[in-house]
Design goal:
Length: 165
């Protein structure tokens, strides 16, 4: 087995493990938090708050589960195609796409089988939306990609500038 195939296999394994983790957490949240609705972890800072989200992030497209599911599936198929094509080099961007795929699939499973996504993490020190582990995977990966690309452009600019001096 060559290195590209090992990376692909490892990537699929990581996606599976993250999706499984997400689904186990959501199952436990559904089982233990739904009956009580809210559980404070750190007063004034963080709590678990059971919420059934039938839209996208931040309540966008509420009630449009079918559209959200279809759009998510298209995005995840695209990400998987890129990851498994072997044409995308392993690195920061690649790892972030693996985590994005895992988060996306975690929420697709909820939409497909429940009709909504279970959200449960509520940050109290800022006025923010309730989210879940899958959302964290997608959002954090997107931020890392953005900052990494900005850093790469800056680094390239700095290198060219130093060569011209």
């Amino acid at each position: 087995m060559n290195n590209k195939n090992k990376v692909r296999l490892f990537s699929v394994g990581v996606i599976f493990a993250m999706v499984l983790t997400d689904q186990i957490i959501k199952h436990l949240i559904d089982l233990y938090l739904r009956p009580v609705s809210v559980k404070t972890l750190i007063p004034g800072f963080l709590q678990l708050h059971y919420f059934e989200n039938d839209g996208a992030m931040m309540g966008l497209m509420s009630g449009k589960t079918e559209i959200m599911t279809a759009a998510s599936v298209v995005c995840m198929v695209g990400i998987l195609a890129v990851l498994l094509s072997g044409k995308f080099r392993f690195g920061v961007d690649y790892v972030c796409l693996v985590f994005m795929a895992a988060g996306g699939f975690g929420n697709i499973i909820d939409r497909a089988f429940r009709g909504y996504v279970i959200d449960y993490i509520e940050v109290l020190f800022v006025d923010f939306y309730i989210f879940n582990f899958a959302d964290c995977l997608v959002t954090c990966s997107a931020f890392v990609i953005i900052f990494y690309e900005i850093y790469s452009v800056y680094k390239e600019y700095k290198t060219k500038k130093e060569k011209n001096v």
